Amino acid sequence: MDKVIRAYVGLDVHKESIAVAVGDAAGGAARFVGTISHDVTQLLKVLGRLGQQGDLEVVYEAGPTGYGLQRALVAAGHACQVIAPSLIPRRPGNRVKTDRRDCVRLAELARAGELKPIWVPLPEDESIRDLARAREDAVNARTQVRHQLKGYLLRHGLRYPAKTAWSKGFYRWLGTLSFDGRPAQVAFAEYQLAVQAADERVARLTEALVTSIEGLRFAPVAVVALRALRGIDTVSAIRLVAEIGDTGRFAHPRQLMGYLGLVPTDSSSGERIR
Asked: Which of 39, 163, 251, 252 has its CA 20 to 30 Å from the CA of residue 207?
């Protein structure tokens, strides 16, 4: 038999602190409990004073602190949901935002069933996501150093005669360049080394990402199904699956498109249709 939730606990979580509020399931205004340091042991003591395991439902907004708190609370026997911040109902005209008000509001909305929890990935799934994001950061960093090198060449009036840059021919062309004066040559060599290091970093992360999906439960989707679509290679497929997660949680394709933000917008009033 499922246990009955007797109280709803709202947490406003920050890197250094956690504000706690509780709302009784029977009704009434939620009350502010207090602010504690971001420590799981201390939070569990506070929850122990508010109710027993299974009597509480804990909610907090998704943020930069990740899912460690949710996993710790679930492991301790508490029901805990991570809430999508963009889907939290907002009161018109409410311009006062404090930690105290936020946690109280979360407790009341959780009791009213107005909150939308997000999908919390398993640790092994999150590790693939972290690796995919690390590779994306490496690609962005490589783009930056490549622009710096091409900008340096442009300032010296040097342009690659062929159309495709960053090909084998382009790198061979770079090896033929020389500059008058030691300072200019040293600067060029440093730009070259930065690009080389960025290329090697992207290559390492790409190899690690491709090999990391062996045995992963989403591997059939990432490697087989998505790669069958035109324009999607292995890395792109892994990135899509790492960010979306379990596609089985969407009952209809429209829900998946809504999750991705790929839905049309309708703003019509009177005779105006937009």
From this structure: 163
